[in-house]
């Protein structure tokens, strides 16, 4: 069997889908994307496939990963690893379909029958957050994540810290102590303010505080982790096992959140999870993306003991109305109940992409860029 062709489809609101074709008629799908850098990743995917993969055997997933990563003198980083991630997902999809098995069975077999998923909670203030959380709790979710705070100056007032804490308090009060609550600082908090905000959030028994600092300040994570009872987390802006290695060695995190679309795909995310397991670090995969990325992430989650919660932004509770799940032939592919997603059993990634619908949506211009925030003095704020 040989790889013969590929196509890329940009679909709203901000996704890039890869279709990988073989001479035996087997097709694999992947989702290579950096949100806001779609065209850059599109070019990288084309370079990698045309330069290294066409005419080769798609079943050699490990060899192809090493070739795409190691053959380039300049390697790693968000663009190349996100391109590699989508290709790797598609190769595993082909491989699973060839053997008639879900990818997680090829990774060693499933270690669980269902996986807890967390729901993202939005809202401008505590009242909005409480309302949104109550609705999602009623829909069955038992794990939640809140982006908090918003614009946060390098040195902030007590009132600004109070507002951030009030948002978390509203979420915790609404869902109670039987639910998991995580907070994503999103890299918006400076080192001088991070420890104080973590200290104020300790009474709310968080499952994690994600990205308390940006990746540029990775050397400061260990000190934060030592000085707070809140599990410190990061990972969505790390792109390989080599990026995670110093954090694990330095005991700088309690939770990691690799993204299967940025961390080099299924092959690399599996290795990252195994590395973390050796350090007793939990894995909560990042995945606010489309159903192809979600399906790929699940394959690692069902084969990895230390993957404990899976992010999703697909409206699993109401698949028929989900614009994201409409990309699948069967929007109810992912079975959601009591806050969990059931183990997928279909071959490969376990999904069937509605190619006709994807082609239709690909006619829409997709030019999403993340917002640019400013502080009140006009300087750039972290988004």
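^ Assign residues to that structure.
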């Amino acid at each position: 069997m040989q790889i013969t062709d590929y196509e890329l489809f940009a679909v709203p609101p901000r996704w890039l889908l890869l279709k990988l074709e073989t001479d035996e008629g087997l097709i694999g799908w992947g989702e290579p994307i950096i949100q806001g850098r779609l065209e850059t990743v599109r070019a990288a995917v084309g370079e990698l496939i045309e330069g290294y993969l066409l005419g080769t055997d798609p079943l050699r997933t490990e060899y192809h990963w090493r070739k795409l990563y190691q053959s380039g003198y300049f390697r790693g980083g968000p663009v190349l690893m996100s391109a590699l991630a989508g290709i790797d997902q598609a190769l595993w999809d082909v491989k699973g379909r060839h053997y008639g098995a879900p990818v997680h069975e090829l990774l060693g077999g499933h270690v669980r029958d269902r996986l807890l998923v967390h729901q993202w909670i939005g809202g401008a203030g505590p009242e909005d957050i409480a309302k949104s959380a109550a609705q999602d709790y009623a829909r069955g979710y038992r794990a939640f994540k809140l982006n908090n705070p918003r614009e946060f100056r390098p040195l902030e007032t007590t009132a600004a810290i109070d507002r951030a804490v009030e948002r978390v308090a509203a979420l915790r009060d609404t869902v109670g102590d039987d639910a998991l609550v995580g907070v994503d600082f999103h890299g918006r908090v400076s080192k001088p303010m991070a420890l104080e905000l973590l200290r104020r959030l300790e009474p709310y028994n968080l499952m994690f505080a994600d990205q308390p600092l940006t990746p540029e300040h990775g050397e400061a994570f260990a000190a934060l982790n030592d000085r707070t009872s809140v599990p410190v987390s990061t990972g969505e802006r790390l792109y390989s096992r080599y990026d995670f290695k110093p954090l694990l060695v330095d005991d700088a995190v309690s939770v990691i959140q690799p993204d299967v679309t940025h961390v080099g795909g299924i092959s690399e995310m599996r290795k990252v999870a195994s590395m973390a397991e050796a350090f007793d670090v939990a894995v909560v995969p990042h995945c606010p993306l489309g159903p192809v990325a979600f399906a790929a992430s699940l394959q690692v989650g069902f084969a990895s003991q230390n993957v404990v919660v899976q992010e999703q932004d697909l409206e699993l509770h109401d698949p028929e109305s989900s614009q994201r799940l409409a990309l699948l032939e069967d929007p109810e592919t992912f079975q959601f109940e009591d806050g969990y997603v059931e183990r997928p059993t279909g071959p490969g990634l376990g999904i069937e992409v509605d190619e006709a619908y994807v082609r239709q949506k690909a006619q829409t211009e997709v030019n999403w860029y993340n917002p640019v925030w400013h502080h009140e003095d006009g300087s750039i704020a972290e988004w």
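The radius of gyration is 20 Å.
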